[in-house]
Structure formats: structure tokens, C-alpha cells
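Subject: for your reference before the review

Hello V.,

The reviewers asked for a structural picture of the protein, and I figured it would be easier to keep everything in one thread rather than splitting it across files. Below is the amino acid sequence we used in the manuscript, unchanged from the supplementary table.
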Amino acid sequence: MLNWWLPENVSTYGEEIDWLFHLIYYITGAVFIIVTVAFLSFIVIYRDRPGRRARYTHGNTPLEIVWTVVPALILVVLTFLSVPAWSKIKMTMPQTDFVVQVTGKQFNWQVTYPGPDGQFGTADDKTFLDEMHVPVGKPIRINLKSQDVIHSFFVPQFRFKQDAVPGREIPQWFEVTKPGQYEVPCAELCGFGHSGMRAWIYAHSAEDYTKWAAENLRAGAAAAAPETKQEPEKPAAKTGGRAKQ
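And here is what came back from the structure prediction:
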């Protein structure tokens, strides 16, 4: 396999995507070589020669059927081979308690973590700009949205790419296998600042992520929580009165 020219795979489903990619690459490469050799051969064989006249040919029906049916069969086979990977990645969602909300807008990615209540859109949410922190070895669910135009959340090392469409919330997932820092460019032309629209995903070990969350999520949620007001103590009721004469 030609893994040396692809970004490093750090996703649990990356091998399945790479296998399909290489299969398609080998097929198209073989077709390219065959067509190129045939093209060059025809240039030499049917070159202009003194005393040779051009001859009109209507075509070759059996040959035309072959070069139509064979590519169609290849596409059908590739479709069936792609179904298991597509179903695993796009049609199923692993059980996980790690959910973040990602919103694309010109020209940033907003990453929101829910607070202790586990709900988005409440006062204890914590939002970061162009920065996401996740643990390795755990499925990460993202709810992908767009605030304005179509964007595309693309992480080459995860073999992950999904458009963010205005008016829709698209659930997707990935699971990182190696700690590191990974770039998230926008892969959809979205305006004059498109080239500068990128974020970073920081994948931590379980211990390091717990430490980061304690410093940045729980501490922030505690600071955002409204302070409970203590009721002022009521003065003790006076029971004294005028003594009876």
C-alpha cells in the first residue's frame, strides 16, 4: 500500500477508508496506463505514410459495448465494497457520553461543550474558538452546524470530512487513536477569508484530558454558576413587654 504519501491515520475507521482509496487508485492507475499505451501505439501505427489513404470506419459495436459495460461493472463492485464502511461511519453512532457542538461561521469554528447539566444552549456551556480538546480511545460525537454559509469540517488524519449546512444539525463521530495536535481546515470555499479558516484538535491521553477538563470546563462552569444568595438572618422576636403593675 502507498501509505507513505497519505497523512498519518489516527482514526479507528481510517484503515477502511484507506483500503478503498488505494483500490480505486490502483484501478484508475491501471486504466490510465492502458489508455496511454494504446494512445501512443495508435499514434505510431496509424501515422501518416506516403501513399496511404485515410479510411472511414463507422465504429465497432462489440468494442463499444465492452468499454461501456466494464466501467459500469467496476462502479457497481466499488459501490458494494463501499457500503460496509459507509454504513459504519455515516449510518451508525457508537454509544458515547462525549458530545460537543461545532458551529462553522465566517471564518471560524466555534466548539461548545455542555455544562454539568449536559444540555446545550444553557448558561453553563463553555465555548472555545478554533480549538477542540478530546481524549483518545473514546468515540467523540459532534453536532455540526453552520451559522451562515456551507462550510466543511475536514481532519485529514482522522479521515473525516463533513459539510456544515445552514439550517441543519448533522451528527457525526470519530475516535482518535494517538495523542497529538491536528489541523481542521475548512474544505469548502466560503468567502474571502476561507483560506484562514482553520481550527486545531488537541487529542490527549485520558489522564491529560481529565486534567484539562478540570482546569477549563469544570472550573469555568463553576465560575459561571449563579451565586446562591443567603437569606439574611431575621432578628429574634422581642418577647419583652411592659410589666404588669
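For the response letter, the relevant points are probably these. The chain is about 35% helix and 25% strand. Residues 8-47+60-91 form one domain.

Happy to draft the paragraph if you're swamped.

O.
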